[in-house]
Fold this protein.
Amino acid sequence: MTKAFTVPEAARAARQASYALAASSAAQRNEALRILSELLREKSGAVFAANAADVKAAEAAGLAAPALARLRFDGHKLEDVCRGAEALSRMEDPIGRVQIHRELAEGLVLTRLSCPIGVVGVIFESRPDALVQIGSLCLKSGNCVLLKGGSEALNTNRALFAVLEEAGRRAGLPDGWTALLETREDVGALLSMDEDVDLLIPRGSGAFVRYIMEHTKIPVLGHSEGVCHLYLDAGCDAGEAARLAVDAKTQYVSACNTIETLLWHRESEQAVLAAAGALRDAGVRLLCDGATQKLLAEAGIACEAAEEADWRTEYLALTLSLKCVGSLEEAIAHINRYGSHHTDAIVTGDDGAWRRFAALVDSAGVYRNCSTRFADGYRYGFGAEVGISTGRLHARGPMGLEGLCSYKYLLEGHGDTVGDFAEGRRSFTHKELR
Amino acid sequence: MTKAFTVPEAARAARQASYALAASSAAQRNEALRILSELLREKSGAVFAANAADVKAAEAAGLAAPALARLRFDGHKLEDVCRGAEALSRMEDPIGRVQIHRELAEGLVLTRLSCPIGVVGVIFESRPDALVQIGSLCLKSGNCVLLKGGSEALNTNRALFAVLEEAGRRAGLPDGWTALLETREDVGALLSMDEDVDLLIPRGSGAFVRYIMEHTKIPVLGHSEGVCHLYLDAGCDAGEAARLAVDAKTQYVSACNTIETLLWHRESEQAVLAAAGALRDAGVRLLCDGATQKLLAEAGIACEAAEEADWRTEYLALTLSLKCVGSLEEAIAHINRYGSHHTDAIVTGDDGAWRRFAALVDSAGVYRNCSTRFADGYRYGFGAEVGISTGRLHARGPMGLEGLCSYKYLLEGHGDTVGDFAEGRRSFTHKELR
């Protein structure tokens, strides 16, 4: 913790602040986002200095190059998070939206209004820009947020958090609406705060997310795995298959929306050969079932044998499993059985096959003729995302402002009693008022 | 179980059936609802005979009169559930609704469609009509459902379930879309089926719901307690206060939306005296804080002292706690601290006080000048409800067809890769298509 308070104190303070933050005006929250952007630019020197210390320590500790790239917070990343906060400040208020407006009976009116969830805990990876993005999304949606970033980014996170807190203070937001947790022990304490924390969003490896899910009574949104598929349908275009396979596997190999398995219909030999060749050229290791191994070997494409466990494995590396199926139905059954219900794509020119695939594949994202890598809040036009959910409840897929909202029912009457209705003196009209 | 299958088998069969049921047409599901209604009327003799056996056994076991009344399934209740199924068959399909339709980039179109949650487990009380209502709601929303009713209603539930299953079969719905669980052991087995069951909805006592929540990894929707409040604001109308207090406490004493605590502003003495007098006349036991006890004693209204624990107690009986507060803010703080975030009401003529109460009370239902007993899916115009949620995620308050739906994102392109966007060759348009 940056201050002399414990996690339970921070969670209780956030709960207290949550009522006032939920009642704050859009103008006030938008002002806080604008101040956040201004202050970040103003105090960029301190942030960059803190980041330089984190990067130096990480280099000394031998952190790998991709991780170092994520840790680095430079002028480009600063510009991105500032523009993100400004864009959010101009977006429509997600809070106080009328979702239902209905006369239940004469003089008795029901209104359902969107409202913040309340207190959210987000545990994110060693990318310091995530702190500002998540903080901005929670601020816009009126949610109090307890933030825990990667330990490698501690100094950068402290500097960015100080700016976030200061922006809230200058805009008159309630004290305690956000807090920075710093240690593994803090996370352990957070998991037991089910009275004061309404939702946890862990981002990170599947094993980490599963650990969180199994050690708390707080609802958890996230994806414990991203086992995504690309299926090459009978007679699909070979060039398109190769282009999409390479993008979906290699464009950003450690992302959850990267494919781990390529399925191909036995009547799409040309397509799988084109895809496998292009993937090999891109340095991808290919693990195959018998039929695929035979086909690739005949074509002189290097590959190895897959095992049953491969169909469930999220490699997060330049490795891909490949399997031949006899029908569209077999592909769908494989995806529903072994997949993680994240994002799965079909390459097909056949509208009927697409309709069947779309109806029967049980995933948050079901795609046709495009890369699974599009599964992302920014690309969907949500501005940003706090995470991607593979659960079916509340939020499914990329979770932006809408996923950070709940709702409440207001009912306004004139002394109305249920007894009058139960005993037949009055009756319901159920008339929509908008 | 009515058949020779185990709960894991039933859950796996429901998961398999869930894909086909999600892809079924509205016409087919509506036809199943119409057949259900016809068959129930046709086979009412068998249902009534089964119910007579249950009632006879319950009488012999000395079941209390209100419980017996709930167990009894007569011509009126049959008519109600038949009309309910027919009404659902005429309602708009909740599945396949377009929630987002957006061009992400030229030729790349995102569509968000509502879809069923998948497999739902509902554990309900000894009211056999609940089986038909829940089965109908799940059928309409394309959800597979595992049903567990009260053991006192076993024969009636078997007879009703046979009709539900037969209706599905005649309409061509996939086998295994529903199953009847019968024993406490079945419930234990159900709790461990987190791979194949997407949501549990337990209905019943707070202790029971908490037990379920603590013994499963499956998401649970429900309310573990219904500690609802009525707050009499300064200067509110005494007649209205008395009428609403009596309805909210006594109209159906064992319901979750019944009030357990009456709060009154110290400047609403006439109102609390009128309410307390009317409640005593209705046979309600009054447990009071010091100020209230003093006022009522002076007026000759019988009452007792409340303890700290009373503010958190759901009596589900003709007992009410009463407390005097110094301000609207104190009332709101009491409700947020001791309440269960279910439904809380204010009696006030002051629009400013109502706006503050509505903004700051953190409950699924926030009411003005009407009884908390209106918190109910039927009264809200949802047709019926599977339960009432006091959680903030997914569904809050009465949960009808909408609460039984999730959504999925479909993305259709023409060979689109993320690489083209990352490397600046293409850019997002994010244009709404409706």
